[in-house]
Amino acid sequence: MMIKAIQTYFNSFRGLSREVWILALVILINRSGLMVTTFLGVYLKEHLDYSLAETGSVLMFYGIGSLAGVFMGGVISEKVGYLRVQFMALALSGVFIFVMQYASELWHFSLLLFLAIFFADMYRPANMGSLTMYSRSDNRTRSLALLRLAINLGISIGPVVGGFLIGIKGYTLLFYVDGITCVVAGFVLLIFLGLNDKEKIKEAKKTPLKWREIDLKSFAWLLFSNLFWAFSFFQIIYMYPIFMKSELGYAEFIVGLTYSLSGLMILFMEMPIVKMYEKFNKRKILFGGTLICAFAYVFLYYSESFSIFNPYVFAMPLLYMIFITMGEIFYLPFAGSLALNMAPKGHSAKFMAVYSMIFSVTHILAPLIGAFLADYFGFKVMWMCMGIAMIIVLLGLSLMNDERLPQEIKH
Questions:
Q1: Distance from C-alpha of 100 to C-alpha of 91, rounded to nearest angstrom
Q2: 3 state SS of 280
Q3: Considering only CA atoms, which of 328, 307, 308 is closest in space to residue 259?
């Protein structure tokens, strides 16, 4: 039984191209050093003594930088080349993350955060463009899942190491490690894939863009659904660490361990699940994933009802992490694959830039509105609102045109 399960796990990786594996390696290196953003809210509130409202306003610049970076990445990727943009994005984001440690004034920190995320998120549409070149439509969901696996494996490493370093050396070392790993990831991309893919892009762009063949209505409802889903889900980045630290009293190392649980779940479960459901109706899978995410917020809502000495005070956020991660597994790779399959050949970077910009918008809204709700109404109300946002996602998904979704087998 165990041997069969192991074989099934490794078989789910078969058929993916060498280039996709290299893209995954680059992301793994980059995300293994991702420590600053995980503890950014706690750093601003606890280390720089910003109020919760001020912390939310600074974190808003994460979203503004992301939105601007994704837009710019989509504009220049097909002209400059997917690989060149990815290399530039990794290297420059590393430089600005390193410099962020020297900022203490609110506007200085906001500006550096904007620049770091602007370059970091130029990477995303270029990376999606590369994925369409190095994967086939029949294994695109698994290719995307492999990149997500690399992201989450890195995330399972980074926060634990980051929490440990904070306890031993303070926050300064986080900026060094995060900045260096960004630059290293860029040079790994340069060494193994080079920077010259413009001819492949030019060849793909010879296919004329046929708007009539694109179901823009379903794409619009997918974007609507992603907006509310990501707004709710991204509180795992912004408000969850603050909640665990300031409301429940847990140290950064414990917070990091809960993120590691999420990363390990995705490492061992996502690829087999994606392989199993690869040919199923993706809209129905998104529906199920959203329901699981909505239920996850019940656990955070009741977390504060227990004293710090009660085992339930940790069990409840732990259950939240388990359920929100399962929902993520059944949502993000299938939503991304659905969008990639909708994208017209040769124009995927621009198309996916629009898709990615929705997530960037939520990086503006999530910390700002989340901090406002938590500050003025308390975390209970905020978690309840996040659950309601997930219910709204179900409305958007139900309005998608199921008959015109690409690459679907109706199960």
A1: 15
A2: coil
A3: 328
